[in-house]
Amino acid sequence: REIGVGRVSIPVGPLFAAVKGMTAYLEAIKGDQIAEGRTELVAPFSEFKDLVGFEKFRELEKDYLPEFVE
Description:
The chain is mainly alpha-helical and 70 residues long. The chain contains 3 helices and no strands. The protein has one domain (13-64).
């Protein structure tokens, strides 16, 4: 509002946030190199699957992959 607009789009904002998150994760595990049990650093797998549309990919696999591919 101070610059005379109601909204400013920053399309790379989520990318910058992802880089910061990846950096924080790698810094946290750098010492012991173990991520197991560090649930505060990562999204649950179920949340990740929902975000990326995992089930839709499974449906596409069923429709388009040959049966012998597992």
